[in-house]
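Lab manual, section 2.4: Encoding a predicted structure.

Procedure: take the sequence of the chain (527 residues), apply the prediction step described in section 2.3, and record the output as structure tokens. A sample record is shown.
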Amino acid sequence: MSLKEVIRLIDLRTSGRRGIRFFFRFSNKKANIMIVKKICFFVLCTIWIGLTSCGSGGSDSIPPAVEPENPNNPVPTDEYNKPDFIPHVDGEPFNTYRGLVMAGYQGWFGAPGDGCSHALHKNTEWYHYRENDIFEPGVLKNSIDFWPDMREYEKKYTPGKFILPNGEKATVYSAYDKSSVLLHFKWMKDYGVDGVFMQRFVGEVIDNPDGKDHFDKVLGSAMEGSNTYQRAICVMYDLGGFMSSSKRGTDAVLNDAQSIMDKYQLKDRTKQKYYLYQNEKPLIVLWGVGFNDNRPYSLTDVESLMNGLKEKGFSIMLGVPTYWRERRNDALPDAKLHDLIKAADVIMPWFVGRYDNNSYSNFYSLIQNDIAWCKTNKVEYAPLCFPGSSDRNMHPNNGVNSRLGGKFYWNQMYNCIKSGAQMLYIAMFDEIDEGTAIYKCMNQSDVPGDRSDTDYYVVYRNGSYSMSSQKVDGLEGDNWCRSASELNVIFQGIEDGLPTDHYLWLTGQARKMLRGEIPLKSTWPSR
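Recorded output:
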């Protein structure tokens, strides 16, 4: 039907004012009639367009009906995490751990010539790179299992005997150099890691001038990095070396914490804007609470330390054993452990070495039950995730917890979030000693050799390792003596074919998944 034919159906020119008044009761004023004519013409045009579009080639055919969706075969839709927190906004202070993906930061590596007083002593100049006071190729002669990707560091140090596959000498960095720490904080910003917990080892900073020199300098650089790159930062005391009745006791730790509070003015958010707060107070962490391994301090000692820190204005996070809730295996059976946890603001259970990718499924229910317990008792819960582990240069008896190209790491982060976790603790940002580092490390095919020039024997006796120039016979049970070459300990590396920043990138993607910005999936998004 043409537009002209439609218009003939209602001929406004011949219907006149009487027809229009019949339908619209308009007056006979010419202006009103013209308005109505225009309205009718618009409506008729619309009808005509609709009629002509119903078919093709002028056909009056009717399009087929739309088939309803099959309820037995619905269209798949992505699932997103529904966070129980307000996502942090860049540039704002960090007022809660909720919604954050934070990593532990050791910051303990040093090198001769870096300016630290450790470098004045032959046995400590390669601080935390060394084993048995040596930093050379060979099991028990160095302490690291991964090698840092050194391409972006400003200052580099050359041990001398570590040779890369291309024949060049390998280099390492020192955390005593501010430029190294600032580079790490830049990476956190670049990849979306919210921040770090700065490890402060009681045995290394209390009554130990060289260690205090090192860790004070690293902490100062990290505080600057926090402000520069808007990353959260929090002090974590590792209670290794803590003894209540010694110079490394409660009063010494409290004095150290007070000096940090005063130096960085942690109660003034305009001074250290991005220091992590919890429950309106600066957060501080005590790691090593409730472990069943004969530590030289009691839960009562920890309680005194907690109370002293609270009096100074801190909120408290505790690093506890894996089985803290059931008080078995690695945890003390003492019911006081639960009392301390209930008095804390946040807890983080230690999972490194407790499972591999095959056995991790056994931990799903443990984490879910942990979360439920913490909700009931109003304590925040930060489950730990780690990319893998390896510490065979220090402990050749141990195996390698394979990273599986990131599958193991992502599996943990995905399941923690799916189980209801509102925050994550990543172990660790920079720990190449135990092979848990997420920062940039060399690929497997690029690492230096780890074979000594001369062979020797490694002796394992009564739980301890030693080196010997001669074979030791007559060892029984779990004790043994083997040549270093027979042990075949090599440096691990980021899997070939993956970029050296792969685990940093995965961490940032997990943060997006936690915040509900990307789908909650058991496989990570394409890059």
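Check your result against the sample. The radius of gyration is 33 Å.
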